[in-house]
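*** Protein under study ***
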Amino acid sequence: MKTSAKVYFISFVLIAAPLMISYGNLISKEAKIESLSWLSGWSYRKAHNVTGSSAGSQINYPVLFSIRYDNGADNGGEVYLNGKCRSDFGDIRFTDSTGIGSLNYWIQQKTDGVQAIIWVKINSIPKAPDCATVYVYYGNSSASTTSNKDWAMDLATDFEDGTTQGWTISWTTWVDGDGVTGSAFEGSYCRYAGRAHGSGSSGNGDFYERFRQQKYLSEGSYIMEGAGRFSLQDSYQMPQWIRLMVGEATVDEVASPGISWQWLSNNFTISVGIYVQVSMEFHLYSSSLLMGGTQTYYMDYFFIRKWCDPEPSHGTWSAEQTSSDNTPPEIFLVAWIPTAPYPYVKNYSLPRQWEPIDVMANVSDEAGGSGLAFVGLCYRVNSSEWWNVTMTFNETSGFWTTTIPGQLGGSHVEFYVVTLDKAGNANTGGVDSYYARTLPIGDINGDGKVGPADFAQLSAHYGQQYP
């Protein structure tokens, strides 16, 4: 009788324990909360459809938007935010169709309180006639811009940080100035260089200067755009042209540009992924160049982005959507106890070897809130990777519950509760922990040995008699 009972219980533990361990391994390896529909902290959004190109589906494709601060009728790529965003447009955000998948963007130009011109890199645009949905979020007074030209474009240069941003000058013989200065095409700064001829002799000659940079471009079609100008400081000097180039191939050029800013733009194709030299070249034909005569030339606002023909187009806008809930749910209480049977000895809150642990949490959203969308538990064993399991609501106890699989004696288990409401507001509880006690398998009452008292404890817990 005693032997058979002991074998029965040991068999139960040996079979069940591996199953409980493998259960945890089936869950995602990263403890993450993802909103179901709304970007946390933002009060308003509008949905917009971007219609795909008949040329095919596009990946990481920049699309241009005009964000207006005032009132008006949304149309094409232009959307009006009715004075509900920050006047500096610092709270503008873009997400994919999930409502929370952040999209990279670059504020190319803006006038505070009036308009922002923004490039948004859309992760995936299907082939026409299908559409990609983009959300524009606004209405968060504490937010600051996350605009980043390097994330939104394959290459973008504006010189607004006061540096040359990696551009160098090649084929230079006489340069008496090279750096960042004012009088820009856009913003406060542009890149400049000055040529000086120091021989004192007169005559004719052709001079070429290039602002250049190395860039890796993958296979595909692109469009290159940039602004350049000459500044005549010697009446004998006659500029011939400004060119945009990829390697030694001319992409676009302006002949006899004069001294005003010139905008250059054209598309090109890369047949295989490769590092290429992209450049803006200035060609000067000099006639009777005087000693010390100078020619200053400038570059600004250069960028390269993906391009297809025809490009994706702007579709319809939704009406403004509102989230009045910006308050995350609260986590009031977290408790954990071993599963059946309960230990009979002191330190009853400490689990034993291979014994699963029930975790309970009291979680609620504020009165009038959007309601709870998700409650989960993140745990790890001996400082290893975090695991994420969903908690379920127990209507009888009023707690959210889940189970941490049983662990080897001596294991250190850490865990915390995460929660999310339907408006996308998230909260994370503090980290709790316990050590799994090292006890013989079948030691129900925790006295360090297996015997009749263990089966009496087991019977008392389950309300039945074990042989």
Q: What stands out?
A: The two ends are 6 Å apart (CA to CA). The longest helix spans residues 2-25.
